[in-house]
UniProtKB/TrEMBL annotation:
Organism: Kibdelosporangium aridum
Signal peptide (residue range): none
Pfam family, one: Acetyltransf_1
Start and end residues of each N-acetyltransferase domain: 12-158
Coiled coil region boundaries: none
Keywords from the named record: Acyltransferase, Ribonucleoprotein, Ribosomal protein, Transferase
Protein name, as recorded: Ribosomal protein S18 acetylase RimI
GO molecular function, one term: acyltransferase activity, transferring groups other than amino-acyl groups
Keyword Cytoplasm found: no
Gene3D superfamilies xrefs: 3.40.630.30
GO CC annotation: ribosome
Length: 160
């Protein structure tokens, strides 16, 4: 897996998350996803399991966003398990850059397709994903529990 470090704009860099980012990742995830945010113990365990796969958009004043794209065991497909950008920073390309970099990491280890789920009413995210090659596969009722339906989207990667 190749290290990721890419300057998005003058003050923001996309890079692999480090252990020192865990508290900020938890705060960021809670701010973005509220009741559906990952509990701290899940963030910690996912960091330990997927070190190097978790990317952050870092600004000197704090994290602006993150993505977590991971391969399944046989690397036949990957999952974008999380993508979030602080609302006041939407429209600056951080979500796109984080997603593209996660997809490149996955492609680099032979992943042939990436899956993700998104809230059906989140039109900006759906448009972003479609622009990056994702297509809606189906609506899954109660995917994240009662009342939390999700669209399953899939994108083919060039390695496939």
């Amino acid at each position: 897996m190749m290290p990721v470090a890419k300057i998005v704009d003058q003050d923001v860099m996309i890079r692999a998350a480090g252990e020192a980012d865990l508290a900020d990742l938890g705060e960021l995830d809670t701010e973005i996803f509220g009741e559906l945010a990952y509990p701290p113990f899940v963030l910690r365990q996912w960091f330990d399991l997927y070190r190097g796969w978790w990317l952050v958009a870092e600004h000197p004043d704090g994290l602006r966003g993150y993505s977590l794209g991971v391969p399944v065991f046989d690397r036949s497909r990957g999952w974008l398990l999380g993508l979030g950008v602080r609302q006041e920073f939407w429209g600056r390309g951080y979500g796109r850059s984080l997603t593209v970099n996660s997809m490149r990491l996955l492609e680099g280890v032979g992943v042939r397709e990436v899956h993700l789920t998104v809230e059906p009413g989140n039109r900006p995210a759906i448009a972003l994903y479609q622009d990056l090659g994702f297509a809606v596969d189906r609506l899954v009722k109660d995917y994240l529990g009662p009342g939390h339906d999700r669209l399953l989207m899939i994108a083919a990667l060039r390695s496939g």
